[in-house]
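User: Fold this one for me? It's Tac7077.
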Amino acid sequence: MLKRESLRSCSFLLRCLWSDRLSLMALNKPLQWTRFSGISQMSAGSEHGSFRDRKIFVCLGNGCGGDSSSGLSLRSCSDYHDGVSRRGVDDTEKRHVFAPSRYVDHGSEINLSEDMRLKLVNGGGSCNHGKHVGFPGPNAQKLVVAVDVDEVLGSFLSALNKFIADRYSSNHSVSEYYVYEFFKIWKCSRAEADVRVHEFFKTSYFKTGIHPIPGARHALHRLANFCNLSVVTSRQNAIKDHTLEWIEQHYPGLFQEIHFGNHFALDGVSKPKSEICRSLGAHVLIDDNPKYALECADVGIRVLLFDYDNSYPWSKTGSATSHPMVTKVHNWQEVEQQLLSWVSA
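Assistant: Here's what I get for Tac7077.
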């Protein structure tokens, strides 16, 4: 049976799990997942006012611990290493806490790390996670990863096509864009294309019509365990405020820095993506544009050339596709797998 101190640890852990964006509605909705468990350290107070480490195993999901029912289970146990119980300084048996890692087995239908944003907070208010199941340990060097916005985080082109069709009676599909230079597709001058795009920025097509790329948010939550993530976009300074709001709405708290290249702007100075990436110390850039991929690969930055669902014609052209520093990916699951393989190598 659990001792009183361990029961308090369980109670504390449950309060933490429920405290961050977890409503009664979320508890009552049907959840389907395979397994959700992990390890973390937490200090729990005893009835004498002192703090000692405790260990609780947390398991959510179908079939956890041999139980066929869904739910949350907690177990207190001693910490063993090579079959020997670890002892505290007073030779008393030492307990710790098992807490949920952010990892969810592949095949899970719901990523709880996003929906519930589970955190375990110790008495000092800081997160103290242990080794995440399936991810590099806490001492592993984190990859610095730069992430593009348009067509990588959000479907910019689909929204732009709707605007062009309604305003200029010119219908285009994503499959027509053999190059990501709009004037060549729209059969107009570069200056005219820039004007049209800036008109688009002022409309609801842009402000509310750009939707996140499927799988991006789930993957980025998991990648944050072993990557330092920043946004590096060619977007213009004129739409900086809205871009920041959009990122916070769809990808809250995931990016440490956000940088704008101000490319194709009507005014202001532009900055190459390779220069921004190097200033960040980026190891990897995730981008859909072969031009930027080649630019960064040539200065020694690895690139994941993003071609969502193999549907971006422009990402299939140019010498970047054969560059040894460039790897093609077709969805965010492939992004995650590739980055994990690099950080684990």
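One thing worth pointing out: The longest helix spans residues 4-19.
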